[in-house]
Every structure is written in structure tokens, then in C-alpha cells.
Amino acid sequence: MSTPDQRFKDKVVIVTGSSSGIGKACAVYFGQLGAKVVVNYSANADAGNEVLEEITKNGGTAILVKADVSKEEEVKAMFNQTIATYGRLDILVSNAGLQQDSSFLEMTLQQWQKVIDVNLTGQFLACREAARQFVAQEAAASKDEPNHSELSIGKIILMSSVHDIIPWAGHVNYAASKGGIMMFMKSISQELAPHKIRVNSVSPGAIKTTINKEVWSDPEKYKGLLNLIPYKRIGTPQDVAKAVGWLASDDSDYVNGETLYTDGGMTLYPEFADNG
Ligand code: NAD
Fold first, then answer.
1. Measured in Å, how far apart are the chain's first and last C-alpha atoms?
2. N vs C: which end of the chain shows fewer Cβ within 10 Å?
């Protein structure tokens, strides 16, 4: 019998928004690979508990923490609980996000603000706490024993979207939040690289989750969607989890400030495939 892959053995991972979809797949994936996982939810405790059970019933280690990523005190409390439980943090997957769609002419300030608060300010709050923790634990560790390792001391993976470069009418709040993530990610990567903290994004294309159920559950809309995907299939949350896993591993140690498009080629201008 082959030995199970434990590439994240004892690494502590927070995955925000992990009670469903892509975040859930990431939490389960890290759990399978030996990590200690912090499953985060903001509203649906039952869904969060299901993820927790899925990880632990397969021998994984996890805790469930309620926190709204757009609220500073709740984000701080989530990190505090993580450190109180596991003593450290190694990886943040800053995944929580939502859509509040409207034509631009009809969009309310509330719809704009909600998406920016969760998708962009939520990233700021979680990434800042993670970076502070990485720096603090490294300072504490190297007081006793200087760190001579060349490898990264902490990894941050932000969940962006192909809409960080593809404009999206009817979703300008969402596209603006994801475009913002791109420059936020690159800037903090530049600032944190000297601390040996690596920051990268994953930008999924169309992934089958509740966020876009309205599209993939309608045969006509689904057909239209496939026209936008050269690879001719919708992505799965597991496709994204594996991309996140690579960026969180030391296999990608020299990758900093990059965006990994995980989109079946959606960003390849598919409408030009027949000569435009
Ligand atoms: P989803 O709706 O299943 O997951 C989003 C998660 O974020 C949910 O678990 C939700 O509870 C959580 N969340 C929302 N607001 C929160 C808050 N204030 N605090 C904490 N958690 C909160 O959808 P998904 O497709 O899995 O989306 C996950 C991420 O992937 C999002 O950032 C989304 O923008 C991004 N994304 C998804 C797709 C796709 O096609 N599904 C494509 C590109 C990017």
C-alpha cells in the first residue's frame, strides 16, 4: 500500500469562506494532505460543521470559526483563536467572496459597498493579520535559533477571479473588487517578499458552485458559458484547490506576486479562435 501524501503535515491553514464551494474544497484538500485546518464561516454554521466533519471523519484535524471577514474585530478574533488552538499559522487562503449583481444604472451604494467590504476589505483584513503573525512568529523563533532556511516562512493565497482582467457589465462592483485584489496582491507581495512571505492569487474562471448556479443549472445558459471556455468544461472546486495547494507548497517557492489563472483558457480571448 502506498503512503498517503502528507505534504502539509502539521502546517496550520486558515481558509476563509470555507463552508461551501471553492473554500470548502480547499479546506478538505488541505485536511487530506495533513494540515491543521481552520474552517471559517460567516452565517451558515450547519454547512461549516459539515465541512469540519468531512475533514475529521477522514482522519484530518480542523476547527470551525465564525467570522465575517469584513469586520476587523471578527477577523482578529479568528486569528487569535487559531493561534490559541494550534500555536502558529503557516498558510492563509483568503477566499471569502460574494456577488451582488445589478446593472450599473440601477446599482445602489449598498450593493457596491457590500461587495467591496467583503471581497476587498476582507482581503486586506485577513492578509494583514496573517502577515503580522508570520513576522511575529519568525522573530520569536529566530531569537532562539537564527533561521537559515531559504524557504518562505508564510504563504498567502488570495482568491481573485478572471474578472480581475475581464471586464464584466452588470457586475461592476464584483469586477472592481477583483481588479483591486490584483494590485493589492502585487503590492503586498513586493512589500512582504523581504520578510520571506510569499503572496499570490488564484483566478478561477467558471467553477461549479452556488455563486453561479443560475448559469450552470440552465441548459441554454450553460451552453453559452461553454462558448467562453476553450477547454469545454466547467471547472470544479477541486481544480481550484489543487492550484491553491501548489501555491501554498514549497514547490512554488520562487513564485511571488503572480496570478494563476485556473480557467480552462477563459482568459485566452476564445472569440478569436475562429480568426475573430
Ligand atoms: P460560494 O458562494 O460557495 O463561496 C463563497 C464563500 O464565502 C461562502 O462560503 C460564503 O459563506 C463566504 N462568505 C461570504 N461573505 C462572507 C463574509 N463576510 N465573511 C466570511 N465568509 C463569507 O462561492 P465560490 O464560488 O466558492 O466562491 C469562493 C471565491 O471564489 C469567491 O471569492 C469568488 O469570488 C471566487 N470565484 C468563484 C468563481 C466561480 O465560478 N465559482 C469564479 C471566480 C472567482
1. 52
2. N
**Rg value, the chain, Cα:** 19
Q: Are 181 and 202 in contact (CB under 8 A)?
A: no
Q: Which domain holds residue 149?
A: 12-209+236-267
The reply to whether 41 belongs to the active site is no
The closest of 115, 116, 17 to 68, measured between CA atoms, is 17
Instruction: List Cα–Cα distances, 161 to 28, 167, 190, 203, 263, in angstroms.
Output: 21, 11, 21, 4, 9
Would 108 be classed as within a structural domain? Answer: yes
CA–CA separation, 203 and 263 (whole Å)? 7
Q: How many domains does the chain have?
A: 1
pLDDT tens for 258-273 read 999 999 999 999 999 9
What is the CATH number for 164?
Answer: 3.40.50.720
Ligand 1 mean position, distance from CA 4 (Å)? 29
Which set of grid coordinates corresponds to residue 189? 507581495
Interval 152-200: pLDDT, tens: 999 999 999 999 999 999 999 999 999 999 999 999 999 999 999 999 9
* Residue 231, in any domain of the structure: no
What atom in ligand 1 is closest to the CA of residue 18?
9
The alpha carbon of 22 and the centre of ligand 1 are apart by a number of angstroms equal to 7
Q: What is the DSSP annotation of 55-116?
A: HHHTT-EEEEEE--TT-HHHHHHHHHHHHHHHS---EEEE---------TTT--HHHHHHHH
C-alpha cell at 6: 502528507
Q: How far is CA 119 from CA 58, 159, 200, 260, in A?
A: 31, 9, 16, 18
Query: What count of Cα atoms within 13 Å lies in the side-chain half-sphere of residue 105?
Result: 0
In a domain, 91, yes or no: yes
In a domain, 224, yes or no: no
